Amino acid sequence: MSSQSRRRRAPLAERHRAMAQGPHPAETDVDVHHAGELRPPHPLLMLMEARAPWEYAALLAATPWLAKLPVGDGHPVIVYPGLGASDFSTAALRSFLRDRGYSAYAWKQGFNFGPRGGVLEGCRAQLAQVAARHRERVSLVGWSLGGIYARELAKEQPEHARCVITLGTPFAGHPRATNAWRFYEMVSGQSVHDHALVEQIRVPPDCPTTSIYSRSDGVVAWQCSINPEHPHTENIEVHASHIGMGMNPLALYAIADRLVQDPANWKRFDLRGARRWFFKVTGHAPIQAALSA
Fold first, then answer.
1. Cα 127 from chain centroid?
2. CA separation for the pair 16, 42 (Å, rounded)
3. Are 64 and 58 in contact (CB under 8 A)?
4. Residue 214 near residue 238, CB atoms below 8 Å
């Protein structure tokens, strides 16, 4: 086994300890000295997180439109909640996935307070069990910190992972370029400054990997959610809050579009037609450009 493969299969608990303050910049795509200039979202963006209830209202209003999306093939999807959240927060997303024909599963680990005792073992066992029950690979959808679980589980069990989709997940960027790192330290009891572990976190899984992010995210600096350029990675920008991203109709549209893709013939999100009015795509980590924007 190559040294790179060993790094990817390193214990998930070690990788999660690096989430205490968020990830470090991707050295393959940016100058690490300048990446340290990234800051958490401005307090005004934090205040704008109050728009999350309106995003749920928009989801209800957009239900007839979303109902016209292609129906999926029924394959299983596990949904992981964000930091401090439980399966209740992903109920609308899972309901949407079931309506589109997928077998949607909650993570069933209570509130997501980091990789505490038994959580990682439960996640590993659930993925293997769901894959065995359906006799096919599983799509993993993770919101914020839940996206780290999704990405790292896909690395640990590549034979069970069909694709990974993350929502506002900080897997790249400066350690403190989020407004949640102190809360993470408080609830998880972890504080890590290990650059090597953080480097492992930002390496994408080998399966198709999509990051859905928002420049108006009030919790995570959007640059922290940008995949580096790989043939099987992509980044889709939507107009959403961090707290409301899992019920934002544009984000759900993008999720449905990605899940219907055949992994053997995967193609990046197509911006032709009216989509270009609502979405943007980013091909690589644009931290340098963002700093001067």
1. 17
2. 26
3. no
4. yes
Domain that holds residue 225: 3-292
First-last CA distance in the chain:
42
- Helices 119-134, 145-156: axis angle to 10 degrees equals 60
Divide the 293 residues of the chain into consecutive groups of 10 and give the mean pLDDT of each group.
46 48 37 54 90 94 93 97 96 97 96 89 97 98 96 97 97 78 72 68 94 96 93 96 96 97 94 92 54 33
Structure tokens given for 48: 């704008």
Nearest to residue 148, comparing CAs of 115, 176, 122, 173? 115
Q: How much is the pTM?
A: 0.84
Single out the residue of 197, 202, 205 nearest to residue 14, CA to CA: 197
Q: Buried b vs exposed e over 2-14: b needs ≥16 C-beta within 10 Å?
A: eeeeeebeeebbb
Give me 69's structure tokens.
């999306």
CATH number at residue 136: 3.40.50.1820
Task: Count structural domains, the chain.
Answer: 1
The dihedral built from the CA positions of residue 141, 142, 147 and 151, taken in this order, carries a sign that is negative
Q: Contact, 244 vs 56, CB < 8 A? A: yes
- Residue 54: what pLDDT? 93
C-alpha span between 53 and 56 (Å, rounded): 5
